[in-house]
Amino acid sequence: MMLERPRRNRKSGSVRDLIRETRVHTDDLVYPLFVQEGKGIKDEISSLPGNYRWSSDTLIEEIGRCSDLGLKSFMLFPKIDGKMKDPQGSYGTSEDNYYLKVAQDIKSAHPHITLISDVALDPYSSDGHDGIVVDGQIDNDASVALLQQMSVLQAQAGFDILGPSDMMDGRVGAIREALDDEGFINTGIMSYTAKYASALYGPFRDALDSAPVVNKDVPKDKKTYQMDPANKSEALREADLDVVEGADFLMVKPALHYLDIIHLLKENYNLPIAAYHVSGECAMVLAAAQKGWLDYNQIMPETLLSIKRAGADVIISYFAKDFASLKTT
Ligand code: PBG
C-alpha cells in the first residue's frame, strides 16, 4: 500500500492553485527602459528585440500603457550622444543633462509611479567605465565624489530611488550622506550589492553604446570593480557594508546564474532583496523563442517565478511588460 501519493496534490488546476507556494505579481516587477534625446523616437535594440530607446514623449506614452497593465515601477537608462562623452563623464554631473528633464516630465505625467535611476558613469564616460580612469586604473574615491553629485541631481529631478550600479567602495554611504545633506532624506538607495563581472550585459551595452573602449590605457573589462562570478562570501561582505552604509534594498545581478546568491542574501538580511534579470539573460530566451526552440509565453513566467522562488522580493526584468500583458489576456 502506498499512503503517500504526492500526485494527489497535482491532480487538477484548482488543487495546484490552492497549494502554489510562490506567485509573481506585477507589484514585484521593475521594468527597465532606455531613453534617448529627441522627439518621436522608438528605436528597437537589435540584440534585445521588443525593447526600444524612447524619447521623452514616446516614453511617457509607453509608461502610460505599462501602468494600464498594472506595472508601477520603472528603471531608466540614458543613451548619451558620443559627442557628449568625456573621460570624467562630465555630462552626468551637469544640470543640463537631458535625462534629468526626462525624469521630471515623466514624474509630472505619471506622479504615482516609482522611478528608479541607475547611478554610474558608464553612459557618460568616453572610456566606457563606471568610474574615472586615472593612469590606467579606476580611481575609486574620485569616482565616488562624482557619483554623489550625480545622485543629488537625480534626486532633485524627482527620481524616487537611486541604484548605484558602479561597484565603487564606499559609494552607498557617500551617496546617502550627500542626499541627506541636501534634504533628500526620502530618496531611497537600491544598491547593486553583488554585481558580478558577467558576460550577460552585452545587449545593454549595445543599447547605450557603453562598452569599455579598446585602448591600451584603459582597462579592457570591469573586473577590478565588479565581482568575480566564482565568489559567494564576498557577496556577504558587500551586503554587510551596504546595510551599514544605509542601503534600502540589496540587489543581486545577474539573476538566473546567481540564484544561490539571491537565496543567500534573502536568508541573511532583513532588507528587501532585488534581482536584476539582465539583458543577456533575456536575449537568450528571446533568441530561442524566435527560432521556435522555446515557447516564450511559458518560459517567460517560469523564469520570473524561479527568481522569486530563490528569494527575490523585487525583480527587475525586460520581461515585465510581457508578463503584465499575459496576466491581462
Ligand atoms: C552600468 C550598468 C550595466 C547594466 C546596468 N547598469 C552594464 C555594465 O555594468 O556594464 C547591465 C544591465 C543589463 O545587462 O540589462 N553600470
Under CATH, the homologous superfamily reads Aldolase class I
N→C terminal distance: 44 Å
Query: What hetero molecules are in the model?
Result: ligand PBG
Structural class per helix/strand content?
alpha/beta
Global outline? globular
- Count every helix, treating DSSP H or I runs of 4 or more residues as helices: 11
Q: Enter the CATH topology name.
A: TIM Barrel
How many runs of DSSP E, i.e. beta strands?
Answer: 12
Q: Strand order within the widest sheet?
A: 1-4-5-8-9-10-11-12
Mean pLDDT: 97
The level-1 CATH class: Alpha Beta
CATH architecture label: Alpha-Beta Barrel
Percentage of residues in helical conformation: 25-40%
Describe what is shown at a glance.
The chain has 329 residues and is an alpha/beta fold.
Notes on the structure:
The chain is α/β, with parallel strands linked by helices and 329 residues long. The chain has a single domain, classed as TIM Barrel, CATH 3.20.20. It has eleven helices and twelve strands. The chain has helices at residues 13-19, 56-68, 98-109, 140-157, 171-181, 202-208, 233-245, 259-268, 279-290, 296-310, 320-328, and strands at residues 29-35, 42-44, 52-54, 73-78, 114-119, 132-134, 137-139, 161-164, 188-195, 249-253, 273-277, 314-317. The strands form two sheets. An eight-stranded parallel barrel has the order 1-4-5-8-9-10-11-12, surrounded by eight helices. A two-stranded antiparallel ribbon has the order 6-7. Strand 6 (132-134) and strand 7 form a beta hairpin. Helix 3 runs parallel beside helix 4 (140-157) and helix 4 crosses helix 5 (171-181). The radius of gyration is 20 Å and the shape is globular. The termini are far apart. Ligand PBG is lined by residues 118, 120, 122, 130, 165-166, 201, 204-205, 222, 278-279.
